[in-house]
Amino acid sequence: MSGGPIPQEISEAEAILARASERARQMGLGYAGAVTPREAHDLREGGEALIVDVRTPPEWRFVGHVPDAPLIEWPRDGERSALQAFVNAIRERFDPSERLLLICRSGVRSHYAAELLARMGYPNAYNVLEGFEGEHAAGANGWRAAGLPWKKG
């Protein structure tokens, strides 16, 4: 009758992950993909991923954070031992098969964190574009500006 394949519905999570993967391809990223704050929220709420905050403790505490997102600080100095300590902290808490959505202030530190984790055996590392606060020069963007749940303290 129709002769063609029957289209299958894909879940919202699958659609988000496909977009994230396509962004990775377009941007030449060395990790699984990049998601918007809204997509990160939806993946987390659907139980499809975990959000990991890689900012500093003062940023997390005083600026605000995603509720229940663990804080594992990305080392700003790039020293090998500090980077290894970051990877070790991730390994202590998360299995390499878990989908991790890394978030920082603007999406820069989390980009580097996702890149390192992918090289260290975490094939499901993603960056949250725009981060928690977004780029100040770009105006209001990021997790908070999107009106997603957050808290202080």
State the share of residues found in helices, binned by percent. 25-40%
How large is the radius of gyration? 16 Å
For the biggest sheet, the summary is: 4 strands, parallel
Q: In which order are the strands of the major sheet placed?
A: 1-4-3-2
Assign the CATH class: Alpha Beta
Give a structural overview.
It contains five helices and four strands, in the order H-E-H-E-H-H-E-H-E. The protein has helices spanning 12-27, 37-45, 57-63, 80-93, 109-119; strands at 33-35, 50-53, 100-103, 125-128. It is α/β, with parallel strands linked by helices and 153 residues long. The chain has a single domain, classed as Oxidized Rhodanese, domain 1. The termini are far apart.
Secondary structure layout plus pairing:
Blueprint: H1 12-27, E1 33-35, H2 37-45, E2 50-53, H3 57-63, H4 80-93, E3 100-103, H5 109-119, E4 125-128
Parallel strand pairs: 1-4, 2-3, 3-4
Gist?
With 153 residues, the protein is α/β, with parallel strands linked by helices. Helices cover 37% and strands 10% of the residues.
Please supply descriptive tags for the structure shown above.
alpha/beta; 10% strand; Oxidized Rhodanese, domain 1; 4-stranded parallel sheet; 5 helices; 4 strands
